[in-house]
Every structure is written in C-alpha cells, then in structure tokens.
Amino acid sequence: MGVAMMEDKNGFGGIFRCPLSGQSLRPATEIELERLRARQASGALVNRMGREVAVDLAGGWVSDRAKVFFPEVDSIRWMVVEEAIELEG
Length: 89
Fold this sequence. Notes:
5-stranded antiparallel beta sheet, 1 helix, 13% helix, globular, disordered N terminus
C-alpha cells in the first residue's frame, strides 16, 4: 500500500470509529485516493445514497472492515453513513 496521504495530526484516528463497523479509522492512502479520483473523473463515484460525489477528494478516512471511505472536506470529517463511499465500485 502507498503512504498515507493524510496524517492524523490531532491523534483522533483511534478515537473516531466507523459508524458502520465500529472499527477505528485510518487515513486513506494515496493509492486509494487516486482510485477514488479516477472513478470520480469518469462519473462513476457515488455515495451510499447513490448520489454522485462532487467534493474534492484531498483526503479522508477508511474503515477496512466496512470497506468504505469517509471524505474530509475543509478539515471536517464527513462521518455520515449516507455520505460514505464504497472503496470498490
């Protein structure tokens, strides 16, 4: 796997839990972000509600167990189940 794009600067990675699995989250890797951006560029990136994802994917958080990505936008973690993005699509 690639190097993590984001650092957990505040040490909250272990505190925040995936609302789907209850598992700790980790920063998305650059490889994961590149794959998500490629899907976004092709118009194939949708959230769990089926809405096309239009936000800048500069970083975010991953639940390995649930296999979902939670974007971070303007330093705010979008930890809403409906906004989660499936890592494999």
